[in-house]
Design a protein that fits this description.
Elements (H helix, E strand, L loop, with lengths): L15 H11 L3 E4 L2 H11 L8 E2 L2 H10 L14 E3 L1 H4 L7 E5 L5 E6 L2 E3 L3 H9 L7 H8 L4 E9 L15 H11 L4 E6 L5 H13 L3 E6 L11 H12 L7 E3 L10 H14 L4 E4 L20 H13 L2 E4 L3 E4 L4 E4 L9 E2 L3 H9 L11 H10 L8 E6 L6 H15 L4 E5 H7 L8 H20 L3 E5 L5 H12 L3 E7 L3 H7 L4 H6 L21 E3 L6 H14 L6
Parallel strand pairs: 1-4, 8-9, 8-11, 9-10, 11-12, 16-18, 16-19, 17-18, 19-20
Antiparallel strand pairs: 2-7, 3-7, 4-5, 5-7, 6-7, 13-14, 13-15
Helix pairs in contact: 5-6, 9-13, 10-11, 14-20, 16-17
The chain binds 3'-phosphate-adenosine-5'-phosphate sulfate (PPS).
Length: about 575
């Protein structure tokens, strides 16, 4: 039974004294350093946000959730909450053993009493939970390329919640929200889930939804992990605070949810409903394409636009929370106000700015009208997303050894320095291997570490408004994609495939390495005895066999200009 919204929800924490004792004892246990996503999951497990889960799923629950959206005992639960670990770590753990779960600074947050250990069929998980085993889905990509190969399951004993230093006053556990609603006499509360800044249309629709449900409103944005490329939560929270002032006083509250989203559309909507129920809400707004992951690798939507609403509606009783339809609100010019799209009288002029158009206007520094958003929100967004010509960016050259990456990158660097305006750093393959990665060899593991280091440095440069030019071989698609995601959190990533053929590289053999590789004197040599996965979605492909270096660098400059990164 789920506690009614006015009663406390069970948490997994032990008392303060027991926690202190456990912490001391846990010093002797094997420790797992949690990933950022696992920290989010653990926080909601411990504070009751994931009630009725009592820990990370064991194998029987996992199989049942993947197949039927239910725990083994039949309780509705749509999302596998699993603790993925490396093979090396898993080899040290046996069911029956306790392990300490630590945050990234080494603080012990919980003890996991391991009941199950298994290697999941990730493709099946992808198909069943996310609808397709397609790496274009961010959670499927995470599953295959970031999550460890072995899952550990078992009950969790909570010692302490993860510490957050930002927006402490706005973060509430389910029980804190339940107590708040009780204190305020809020009996009906409609939750609004969001991972985006709110504009006027959102404010109108949420206010209308609350009025229709005769409920108070909880703006409940996700600040844990959202879709790669989303606006960072610091900016969003400043925007939410500005919008909060636009609601009539004491009708609406803002609280931050440290959830790691999976972008799983219909299943995610059901999951969001259960989480909001646990936080004491009675209603939730579910929109068109709720928690949608974008397009699949064939350029089509992963889920139908109303699939999330349908699945939610089907399970409303079990979720224990009512769905409120998201009314699409549009601005009617003649009436100078927002109205539900289906109520607009014929002949009226309807104005709208799509998300893509908003991003374009921000990146080009163009006007964003007052009818669309609030001036405070626009100002915040402009501070975070200056025009592209003022943002940092990364040009990432990839190609075989001797393809001409470094030569073109060097030529591009001086051309950019001639233009001026932003500092330029060249992270050349050879230079990086000397200064950052001197201990690494050329195994897949070492190459991946090398590229992630380059990605990390480039993302810092990009974040701070500079230009990073990278020129490693970077032979693996998944690693290049991980770097793209790191950079795109802060600015533009331009992948340039220097597509010189193996034959041409070998014929040039400027460093004499191909001859050595053919003679077997250099092992794991890219193109000869090691793979190179050519990019299929690079922003630019350069054929060095048809153009000289100056022209190749010029092609990149033209690309940067067309992307609005230079020139304005
Ligand atoms: S990777 O795969 O991206 O980590 O490689 P990278 O850091 O770019 O280093 C490539 C340079 O190292 C030299 N070198 C080798 N390359 C490929 N395979 C093997 N086994 C190898 N051993 C040494 C080579 O000079 C590469 O430089 P470039 O500039 O690409 O020719």
């Amino acid at each position: 039974m789920t506690p009614a919204s006015t009663m406390p929800i069970p948490e997994l924490f032990v008392s303060y004294d027991s926690a202190e004792k456990l912490k001391k004892e846990a010093g002797d246990l094997l420790s797992w350093d949690l990933t950022p996503r696992q920290i989010c999951d653990l926080e909601l497990l411990m504070n009751g946000g994931f009630f009725p889960l009592k820990g990370f799923l064991g194998q029987a629950d996992y199989d049942s959730v993947v197949e039927n959206m239910r725990l083994a005992d039949g309780t509705l639960w749509p999302m596998p909450i699993t603790l993925d670990v490396s093979e090396v770590f898993a080899a040290k753990v046996e069911p029956g053993q306790d392990i300490a779960l630590r945050d990234q600074e080494g603080v012990i947050l919980a003890i996991l009493s391991v009941s199950d250990k298994w290697s999941p069929d990730k493709s099946r998980e992808a198909e069943k939970v996310f609808g397709a085993d397609d790496l274009a889905h961010p959670a499927v990509n995470y599953l295959h390329n970031q999550a460890g190969p072995v899952y550990l399951g078992g009950p969790v004993t909570g010692i302490q919640a993860p510490v957050h230093y930002d927006y402490r006053g706005l973060r509430n556990t389910p029980n804190e929200l339940r107590a708040y609603f009780r204190k305020m006499g809020w009996r009906r509360v409609v939750a609004f889930q969001t991972r985006n800044p709110l504009h006027r249309a959102h404010q109108e629709l949420t206010f209308r939804a609350a009025k229709e449900a005769q409920a108070n409103l909880l703006i409940h944005p996700v600040v844990g992990m959202t879709k790669p490329g989303d606006i960072d939560h610091f900016t969003r929270v400043r925007c939410y605070e500005a919008v909060l002032d636009k609601y009539p006083s004491s009708t609406t509250s803002l609280s931050l949810l440290n959830l790691a989203m999976r972008m799983a559309g219909p299943r995610e909507a059901v999951w969001h409903g259960i989480i909001r129920r646990n936080h004491g809400c009675t209603h939730m707004i579910v929109g068109r394409d709720h928690a949608g992951p974008g397009k699949n690798s064939a350029g089509e939507d992963f889920y139908g636009p109303y699939e999330a609403q349908e699945l939610f509606r089907e399970h409303e009783g079990e979720i224990g929370l009512e769905m409120v339809d998201f009314k699409q609100m549009v601005y009617v010019q003649e009436r100078a106000q927002y109205e539900p799209a289906d109520e607009v009288e014929p002949g009226m002029t309807v104005l709208n700015i799509s998300g893509t158009e908003l991003r374009r206007r921000l990146s080009e520094g163009l006007e964003i009208p007052d009818w669309f958003s609030f001036p405070e929100v626009v100002e915040e967004l402009r501070r975070t997303r200056p025009a592209r010509s003022k943002q940092g960016f990364t040009v990432f050259f990839t190609g075989l050894s001797g393809s001409g990456k470094s030569t073109i990158a060097n030529a591009l660097m001086v051309k950019l320095m001639e233009l001026g305006g932003r500092p330029v750093t060249l992270l050349d393959g050879d230079v990086v291997r000397k200064h950052l990665s001197s201990e690494l060899g050329f195994s897949k593991e070492h190459r991946d570490i090398n590229i992630r280091r380059i990605g990390y440095v480039a993302s810092e440069i990009t974040k701070n408004g500079g230009i990073a030019l990278c020129a490693p071989i970077a032979p693996y698609t998944a690693t290049r994609r991980a770097v793209r995601e790191m950079i795109e959190a802060y600015g533009t990533f331009v992948e340039v495939h220097v597509a010189t053929s193996l034959e041409a590289c070998e014929a040039r053999d400027r460093k004499g390495l191909y001859a050595l590789a053919r003679a077997g004197k250099i092992k794991e040599f890219t193109g000869i005895s090691d793979p190179y996965e050519a990019p299929t979605n690079a922003e630019l492909v350069i054929d060095t066999e048809k153009a000289d270096v100056d022209n190749c660098a010029h092609q990149v400059l033209l690309k940067l200009e067309s992307l609005g990164l230079i020139g304005a």
